[in-house]
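Entry 14: structure prediction run for Regulatory protein. Input pasted below.
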Amino acid sequence: MSPAPFRDGVSDAQTVPLRTILARRDLALEPLVPAAPDAHVRWATVSELLDPAPYLKGGELLLTAGTNLPTDPEALDRYVTALVSAQVTALGFGVTPVHDAVPDTLVARCRAHGLPLLLVPRETPFVAVSQAVGEELERLRLAGQRRFTAAGRSLTKAAIGATPVQELLTTLSAALGCWTQLLGTRPLGQVGRVPPLPDEAHELIRKVRTPGGPLSAKLWIPPDEVVLHAIGDQARDRTVLLLGRPKPLDSTDRAILGIAVALLGLLSRAQPAVVDDASRLATRLLLTGATPDTTVLRLLPALLTGDEPAPTAYRVLHARWTRPSSQPTPSPTLFRTRLVDDTSTPVRAILADQGTHHAHLELLDNLHAAGWLAALSRPVPGSALADADQEAAMLLIRAHATGRPLLPETQPDPLETLLETDEARAAARTLLGPLAGNDSTSRTLRTTLRAWLAHHGSWDRTAADLGAHRNSVRYRISRIERDLGIDLSDPEQRMRMWFALSRFPDDTPTHPTQRDISR
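Run finished. Output tokens:
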């Protein structure tokens, strides 16, 4: 059984079974009034107050030498009942120097009120008891952390399997020792024997699925405690995960459940055509916006390396298929990563930093030999993937202009140190003026200007790259000159525009639409 909640609602977080403390031979604690097998201890604390109850939270192993222990029977009874009301797990009584033995009256009162009583021998200082509780709590914390890490990796591996939903449910059931069921408008999968659901359960399912309703709920279906959790952040697509087992979930269990909920939610956000590919969706979410999706970012190491150690840094790869034949599906082996998004042009991927310049050159050369022209960003932490995505996009434009794969300079550019990122982006927005808008026309003009600058002003090569007529390219460049009041035959103005485009925030270069904005 799980311990009853304490006064502040804590029942399982950071508690250790009392029997574990009693089993410590170095303490030699002797139970005079035995505790229940499921008794748990939050902490060991010392108090000689006549009424320590107001200062306790419940779950303590209270240690006393009996300095102010009442001798009056009624007062002693009030002392014990107050500790019971405060949900003290056990009272530890230390003999000497005040008492040579535990008073019989205290033993009788504790037995009468069901308060476990321990004898602390004179050889065991109170601080040793407190230290022992702390050691056991830390041991449990580390064990829970290891279990959480292992379960997280297993769940993440399941999410990128051939049948991710069913594999996730199977892995979650194994990790928590429970049955699971995923419900939409119909059952979407289950593991284990799911009991018949009473009317109360169906009502809770309806509430959890309702827009604005609770995200989770629980009920008792003997012999199981059943937990319900909403999946997905859009009400019309919201499904409900049910799981049940006799033992209530502890804090580590709930953390593991949180990973499963996040992964199922990630799958639910995919388009139907790619619903079975969490890795593609995760890549898109990590590279979208100024900051990556926090849920996916937390899962990034496991998504990328599985059971291997987490990478110290990441790189973003942009690649374009260069052969006349149809673009093949990117191979995880060739790209050296499972995190590939091939739903856009160019293909984007997230890789673990290999640490050496040679390893990255080899990757780009292998891709080039297979028909992919690619560029790779600098190594960045997971939180800076959006910046790396933008850098890879700009490098691919340069790579396309030269026809060779490209890595960033290995030595830091001294010009980069002149402006902080925020200052550079603000300057870029100022330089671009009306081109800094978020409308389709502004984006098309920026894309055209990038390609034209990358091809050193070649109308034909720019038109071929964009899939547009050369006269459309001429019109767009003329319009940019007119709107900005600049002459792009001036190399200084070209330099200023390249600076602005390479630092413009949240603007990943892609091909503009075939629509000619001059018409």
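Notes: The first strand starts at residue 16 and ends at 17. Will compare against the previous run tomorrow.
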